User: Which sequence fits this backbone?
């Protein structure tokens, strides 16, 4: 959806067009698992105070940037904190943390917006703490999972995962067509890397000076122009770059929009 940056918050969606921030006037819900695709966004979460929607929201979709919401599945049953969708494939993956009327706990994927679900074996991940999940923009069977003990990639719908990095902490990952962008917490500080999907060698991306106690928790990039990226830290500092990290602009500091 264009090259604007959309950020989901506990009180609705905000947008940055490269110069200014804009806020929504309606559907200001507590969005969780928010993910953008070419023509829509998918999310979960909790309704805003005073809303007549059921809590939790289940799997929801919007094709008009949040003006209206379509309730797709498990409405009133599930809040998916871990949710991702392919930018062009619209294959949706979730990690279900509590059983509901249709799904047990574990990883699932759907190719028909929640009408039917397939379970993933989730085999090969040697970690007890997950940071984020990211679906490949085109390849329906590919998904990455960042964990406390490294970055894992599956090429068979989340059934089997391969460790793609050393076993340092990886809070966030974002899949592009041919590469992965991911953040790390290492003894030498906070880092951001770009790595080809089919390789183990990574190239470091220059980042702003960030405290060791303020790791990068969210990453987003444009699929049309991968040199355009955004990072969000633990303290809700937001930075954007248009040149692959050579220059960064801070657009929010500790959650305060600039």
Assistant:
């Amino acid at each position: 959806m264009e090259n604007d940056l959309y950020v989901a918050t506990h009180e609705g969606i905000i947008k940055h067009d490269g110069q200014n921030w804009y806020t929504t006037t309606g559907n200001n819900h507590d969005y969780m698992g928010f993910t953008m695709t070419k023509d829509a966004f998918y999310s979960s979460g909790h309704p805003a105070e005073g809303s007549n929607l059921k809590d939790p929201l289940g799997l929801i979709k919007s094709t008009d940037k949040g003006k209206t919401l379509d309730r797709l599945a498990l409405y009133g049953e599930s809040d998916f904190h871990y949710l991702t969708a392919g930018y062009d494939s619209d294959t949706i993956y979730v990690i279900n943390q509590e059983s509901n009327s249709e799904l047990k706990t574990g990883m699932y994927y759907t190719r028909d917006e929640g009408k039917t679900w397939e379970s993933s074996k989730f085999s090969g991940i040697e970690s007890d703490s997950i940071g984020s999940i990211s679906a490949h923009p085109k390849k329906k069977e590919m998904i990455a999972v960042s964990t406390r003990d490294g970055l894992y990639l599956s090429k068979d719908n989340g059934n089997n995962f391969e460790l793609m990095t050393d076993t340092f902490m990886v809070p966030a990952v974002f899949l592009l067509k041919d590469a992965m962008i991911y953040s790390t917490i290492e003894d030498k500080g906070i880092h951001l890397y770009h790595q080809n999907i089919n390789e183990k060698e990574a190239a470091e991306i220059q980042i702003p000076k960030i405290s060791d106690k303020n790791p990068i928790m969210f990453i987003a990039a444009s699929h049309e122009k991968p040199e355009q990226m955004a990072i969000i830290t633990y303290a809700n500092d937001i930075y954007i770059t248009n040149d692959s990290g050579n220059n960064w602009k801070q657009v929010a500091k500790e959650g305060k929009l600039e």
